[in-house]
Amino acid sequence: MFQSRSRFRHLTQPVKKHSPPKNTTRPKHAVARLYTDGRFHEELAQEFEGKPILRFHLAPPILGNQDRQGRPVKRTFGPWMLHCFRMLATLRRLRGTPLDRASA
């Protein structure tokens, strides 16, 4: 997943550290919390100078696109997704309630 040449290894390690293991999924609110709790941005600031441009590769179920094998198709989203992640992280309180679509 994160195969890199040795000269770029210092760039991929922070991403690798915050990514789930290959072929696993996390609840959407858990991923959102990881990006918005502050630790991710602290580590980015320690690792890089300036303000890095973030890109997120996601397959939101609301878009529902699938490839020929029926797997979700990932799309690239820009840094504006952090706003969506914050909103999604606050919706965690709805888990297990009648408003939770997953428990229906």
Can you describe what's shown?
- The protein has 104 residues and is mostly helical.
- The chain has one domain.
- The protein contains four helices and two strands; from the N terminus they run αααββα.
- The protein has a two-stranded antiparallel sheet.
- α1 (9-18) runs antiparallel to α3 (39-47) and α2 crosses α4 (81-90).
- It is globular.
- Mean pLDDT is 75; it is low at 1-5.
Short description:
This protein has 104 residues and is mainly alpha-helical. It is 37% helix and 6% strand.
Layout of strands and helices, then pairs:
Layout: H1 9-18, H2 28-36, H3 39-47, E1 56-58, E2 75-77, H4 81-90
Antiparallel strand pairs: 1-2
Query: Could you say which overall geometry the principal axes of the C-alpha atoms support?
Result: globular
Q: Name the helicity range.
A: 25-40%
Distance linking N and C termini: 34 Å
Query: Which structural class should the secondary elements be placed in?
Result: mainly alpha
Order of SSEs: HHHEEH
Contiguous helical run count: 4
